[in-house]
Amino acid sequence: KKTLALTEESRITPLTVNDFKELLRSTPLNIHVENQKDERLNRLSVPIFTNNDLTLYCLLEDAKTIKARCFVYHFTVTDGSAGLPNPPCTLCTCHFKS
């Protein structure tokens, strides 16, 4: 039985916004996993971890709907090491091109 769905760095876009609305509505929904029988999911808790605005790529009305279904917590915890050096570079999509 599934009781939790974890997403990390989710990017809700106009193409995926309805799927996220359905998931965050907390009503049962059918999901399809490749090479498996479709499964009915009941209410799930969905922790979403992100460093960016969850609805950055959504239309304003969709963003309001998504945010109305979320509890938002802002964590500002340091690692306790003031001497930790900065990373040598910031990764972007250009690092993943072949």
Describe this structure in words.
The chain is α+β, with helices and mostly antiparallel strands. The chain has one domain (1-75). The chain is 17% helix and 10% strand. It has helices at residues 17-24, 60-68; strands at 7-8, 29-31, 39-41, 48-49. Strands 1-4 form a two-stranded parallel ribbon. A hairpin with a 7-residue loop joins strand 2 and strand 3 (39-41). The longest helix has 9 residues, at 60-68. InterPro entries: P-loop_NTPase.
Count of distinct structural domains: 1
- Written as H for each helix and E for each strand, in order along the chain, the element string is EHEEEH
- The shape, in one word, is extended
Indicate the mean pLDDT. Answer: 79
Let me know the number of strands. 4
Portion of residues in beta strands equals 5-15%
Q: How many strands, which pairing sense, and closed or not: the largest β-sheet?
A: 2 strands, parallel
Structural class: alpha+beta
Q: Which strand order does the major sheet show?
A: 1-4
InterPro entries: P-loop_NTPase
